[in-house]
From TrEMBL:
EC number in record: 3.2.1.23
UniProt KW keywords: Glycosidase, Hydrolase
UniProt catalytic activity: Hydrolysis of terminal non-reducing beta-D-galactose residues in beta-D-galactosides
Matches recorded under PROSITE patterns: GLYCOSYL_HYDROL_F2_2
Gene3D superfamilies: Glycosidases
Domain Glycoside hydrolase family 2 catalytic: from-to ranges: 2-199
One example GO MF annotation: beta-galactosidase activity
InterPro entries registered for this protein in UniProt: Bact_Beta-galactosidase (IPR050347), GH (IPR017853), Glyco_hydro_2 (IPR006101), Glyco_hydro_2_AS (IPR023232), Glyco_hydro_2_cat (IPR006103)
Source organism (scientific name): Escherichia coli
Pfam families xref list: Glyco_hydro_2_C (PF02836)
GO cellular component, one term: beta-galactosidase complex
SUPFAM superfamilies the record matches: (Trans)glycosidases
Coiled-coil residues: none
Protein name: beta-galactosidase
């Protein structure tokens, strides 16, 4: 694809992510723990690696996004490492309790406090960094969700990025204005998002 060629030419780094996402599935690991889904997941990962492996802009392979963690992700991690040991593999669903990622990459981790989600608690950055024997780098795969005027808290995040050598930054999600202009009853424009159009 042209995008990768442009990244090669202009020196942009790429985290090349497989098109695997089961966002909102309950349980989240339903497909990655089901061997019937390994061929479909494997096809997406192998095609990505075979298509893009000669692009110097690709510095990290990603096993997808928000798809739980299970045997299929473990198998795909091992396959990538066997064909391309030169690049790290990351997967945000991997977390610290798995070998399916070379980079710990939590989503929306706060700096100081854990978040008590019922299914999967979200640990704070400080907790991730304090795990005994853990040496992998930590990069926030998503933080500071950019919707409307929601982009707050950067000072605290950037203080942590500077303070902890293993914490190597993060990716603001999602670097694009997700809104569409809608008008109120007086004709004034406002930024509308999913759910603001009668959708559910």
């Amino acid at each position: 694809p042209l995008w990768y060629t442009l990244c090669d030419r202009y020196g942009l780094y790429v985290v090349d992510e497989a098109n695997i996402e089961t966002h909102g599935m309950v349980p989240m690991n339903r497909l990655t723990d089901d061997p019937r889904w390994l061929p479909a997941m494997s096809e997406r990962v192998t095609r990505m690696v075979q298509r893009d492996r000669n692009h110097p802009s690709v510095i990290i392979w990603s096993l997808g996004n928000e798809s739980g963690h299970g045997a299929n992700h473990d198998a795909l991690y091992r396959w990538i490492k066997s064909v391309d040991p030169s690049r790290p593999v990351q997967y945000e669903g991997g977390g610290a309790d798995t070998t399916a990622t070379d980079i710990i990459c939590p989503m929306y981790a706060r700096v100081d406090e854990d978040q008590p989600f019922p299914a999967v608690p979200k640990w704070s950055i400080k907790k991730w960094l304090s795990l005994p024997g853990e040496t992998r780098p930590l990069i926030l795969c998503e933080y500071a969700h950019a919707m409307g005027n929601s982009l707050g808290g950067f000072a605290k995040y950037w203080q942590a990025f500077r303070q902890y050598p293993r914490l190597q930054g993060g990716f603001v999600w999602d670097w694009v204005d997700q809104s569409l202009i809608k008008y109120d009853e007086n004709g004034n424009p406002w930024s509308a998002y999913g759910g603001d159009f009668g959708d559910t």
